[in-house]
Amino acid sequence: MKGKTILVGVLVAMLVTSVMPIMNGQATNEQFLINAKKVDFTYKTFEKSIATTNDGNVLLSTDSPEEDYLPAITVDGNGNIVAVWTHEISAVDGDIGIAYSTDNGATWTSGVLEAEGFQYYADIGYMPGSNYEGPAWSGLWIDSLDPTRNAGTFFLITDITDENTWTGYLWTDDSRPGASDMCVEDDMWFHEYSFDTIGPVIGMVDDDQGMYQGIMLWWLGVDDTGVPTETVSNWDAESVLKTSPAKNVDMAPHHDSDPAWSENDYFHFVSEHLNATSGHSEIVYKKCIPPEQDDIEYVPTQYYLVQDPNFDARDPEVDSDGDNVIVVYMMKSAYGDWDIKCKYSSDGAATWSDSVVAGEQLVDETNPTVYVSGNNVYVAYISNGNLYLKISKDGGATWGEAIQINDNEGSVVAGDGYVDISAGGIVWVDNRNGNNDIYYAPIPAPRIVIQSISGGMGVTVTVANVGTEDAENIPWTIDVSGGLVILGKHAEGTIASLPAGGSATIGTGFMLGIGKITVDINVGGTTKKASGFLLGPLVLGLK
Q1: What's the number of domains the chain is made of?
Q2: Tell me, what CATH number does 288's domain have?
Q3: pLDDT per residue over 389-427, tens digit each?
Q4: Under 8 Å CB-to-CB from 40, ≥6 apart: which residues?
């Protein structure tokens, strides 16, 4: 996950003017169509193709003399690895660099997505569907900020290999002013925009922890064509100083298997802001359930997670898998250097414990990013111009030895948002070629993909481990909804062992019913959806 940095301020009058029409309720499809317009864009691939053995450093921004930075990486529903970054042409002109691999990182297609304005701070995530009070839509979302216009652009991609499925939208100037950063995370049903507000706004509450509201977050749903349809929630990410908004925003989703929103569907949110009294940065945590927290009031699940009157805590990153929640951050030590520290929880953030990821004395370790899979936690960070990875196999309590990822000594560039990690691998900013480029490397970990879904006598699913390490104890579920399903609505189990490069078959077993059905599959956090027709014991036309 990628850290976020506040980039653009906005006067409160501008914010209130634009917010008030939809602040107290969900926006209509008509409102969003007025505030967003489709944009023309082109995707130009680089002339030089990329090939790798999938075990070294891969230059994604190949043949690019411009500056490339702020990378983000995800894996879509078909197992494709997709990375984006800011491709800066000048101080007022930039595009989105984008690369994808359909063969687990063995080869890549890389290029630049060109659109109107300055496409700055691109971020990407895969969402399996928007299931809150509206039709489902799934695919890749790419958000970017245009600092020259104080507005954002977003792209919806159904199939990364087919440009005909790519759609771009541009917010009009008065609908999303002062966007401070973009934030899209994997497996979210909604994406989020952050807004920097200077000065007080309507409804501000000075709670007992001395926090003031700092930025507004907007959750946006879409229909099955990718058209925005509703704002489902807006709330504050509070800041101690009204003139010092929260920054470095990051979040991680938690969803249960039920497509309806409930108290089990929420988001872990972290941000950094400056303490008015101590003058030091600290980390705020907030657990947000959008349907229940659609206001701008303080809630009990928001609090200081890291607060020290003598030392700065900065650049927080959060990720979760089930009830395992990990927050990593960089913190100044008594020796004057930066260390990487961790807050970890095994009960959905009800309680927290502490550990040190990297804390060598008199050596700066900075800009952490985190990926969680079960009890395995992967944290990448920068130190002395190199990129390192540490792995915890017990939910963040203890950490293994540091593994150097870059194969060119001292070439990694440090900065907020300059490294990102996901199941697909690690991307970072590297200057070994004389300018800032984006590089990729796989992580030494298992990676589970759903290779195929077939019908017949029940639903059969083929699962593969395309990662570099063996996987153990992989939980899986298959849920069938729609139609009249008498038998076979739910199946679950555990794959005891799946070696790297291996595959396994799971299924519902015997089914009985009639009608159109939707099949939701979850294997170790990897999800996929299919639809078909159930006729007696036969599943037909599943795709």
Answers
A1: 2
A2: 2.115.10
A3: 999 999 999 999 999 999 999 999 999 999 999 999 999
A4: 115, 116, 168
